[in-house]
Design a protein that fits this description.
InterPro entries: DUF6544 (IPR046674). The chain is built from 8 helices and 19 strands. With 377 residues, it is an alpha+beta fold. It is elongated.
């Protein structure tokens, strides 16, 4: 199957060389034209040569996609989809001579899209499968109660948080499921806010977090993002239209940043604070420093509490900002809008901010609609 796909892509790419040969007058058997769109627009000799280079570029890219198909590389389908779209534009501009090429590209796009849907799950399916795997790995069985003796080793402001939030005498929070609304994301300082929906699952037995986000780029193109820290590694995976992977961040810096996110969310499932992988140090009457270690990586940050013993801010210097190369910058999470539900007090509004040399940049904010502790399915 992959050999057949590779041969087909090579042949289709080879056909694009006709456009290059004609534009550069390399053969007398290929007609030379200086117009596009059935004679509506004149390009001139220079423009035709540039147009010919585009045909050559398409041919070479189809050849690369063919090699990827033959080697079963994970990117060949995405590359084929993109170059088929590009080739389709060239065929439209060269109408009617290239109408057969346009039909081939339409068929190619349809086949790649159908193949992608047949092969893989969308990110929501992956998210649900990973949550189910975590629940099977660490089922909620008789979690026991949070007691005064259990929190005695924590810094005073953290102890007061447990008491004021209503966790003493309640079951240990072995996991938590969150549903967000009104979540907004900003990709850069000057970008518009992008509306998102989000659901999230955290597990405490070992540092673990999963979040699924959905939105529309430019208000039109649907996308899904899955952000996780699981089994000692972080990953941010983004897909357009459930098919095209446009982001797949992983590696050491992603592991560290994702672990920082888990640390910042300690009090969304407060039993995190009582695990052996967490180390605490008092800072002052209203703040405490925590270290979280997982898979050989240690991250740290400071939690700040107000006079009502509410957690209001988390600060760290251990998070990486995307870039070439990525760099560590001060980062903070801010919490507010506390409310009581089921005898538990928790924050409902959360935002995250980069503290850059040129100024602060808040890039995500949202509202927590519901919190479920110790979910079993």
């Amino acid at each position: 199957m992959n050999l057949a796909a590779a041969v087909f892509l090579l042949l289709h790419g080879f056909a694009h060389l006709v456009g290059f040969v004609g534009a550069w007058r390399l053969s007398s058997t290929v007609p030379y034209k200086t117009t596009i769109l059935n004679g509506r627009f004149e390009l001139g000799d220079g423009g035709v040569r540039v147009f010919g280079i585009l045909w050559l570029l398409a041919a070479l890219t189809f050849a690369v996609a063919a090699v990827g198909a033959f080697l079963r590389s994970p990117w060949w389908g995405t590359l084929t989809l993109l170059i088929a779209l590009f080739s389709g534009v060239l065929c439209v501009l060269s109408w009617p001579e290239a109408k057969l090429g346009l039909l081939v590209n339409v068929a190619l796009i349809a086949l790649v899209a159908l193949g992608a849907m047949a092969r893989g799950k969308n990110l929501e399916g992956l998210y649900q499968a990973e949550v189910a795997a975590e629940l099977a790995k660490h089922p909620v069985n008789a979690p026991g109660l949070i007691t005064e003796n259990g929190i005695a080793g924590l810094p005073p402001p953290v102890q007061r948080y447990f008491r004021a939030s209503g966790f003493i005498g309640k079951p240990h929070t072995l996991n938590v499921r969150l549903h967000w609304s009104g979540m907004q994301l900003k990709r850069s300082h000057d970008a518009d806010w992008m509306e998102l929906s989000c659901q999230q699952f955290n597990s405490v037995a070992e540092p673990m977090r999963l979040a699924l986000m959905k939105g529309r780029m430019a208000g039109v193109i649907p996308f899904e993002g899955k952000d996780k820290y699981q089994d000692g590694h972080g990953n941010m995976l983004i897909k357009l239209m459930k098919l095209i992977t446009v982001g797949d961040s992983k590696g050491t810096s992603m592991d560290e940043s994702a672990l920082v996110t888990v640390l910042s969310e300690t009090f969304m499932a407060p039993s995190y604070a009582l695990q052996g992988y967490m180390k605490w140090q008092p800072v002052d009457e209203r703040s405490a420093r925590a270290e979280l270690t997982s898979n050989g990586i240690t991250v740290s940050g400071i939690f700040h509490f107000n006079e009502a013993d509410e957690l209001v801010r988390f600060d760290t210097n251990d998070r990486w900002q995307d870039g070439t190369p990525p760099k560590k910058l001060p980062w903070s999470a801010h919490l507010e809008g506390y409310r009581m539900a089921g005898g538990i007090r928790y924050a409902t509004r959360v935002s995250a901010t980069w503290h850059e040399p040129t100024g602060d940049y808040t890039y995500v904010k949202g509202t927590i609609d519901s919190v479920e502790f110790n979910v079993r399915n």
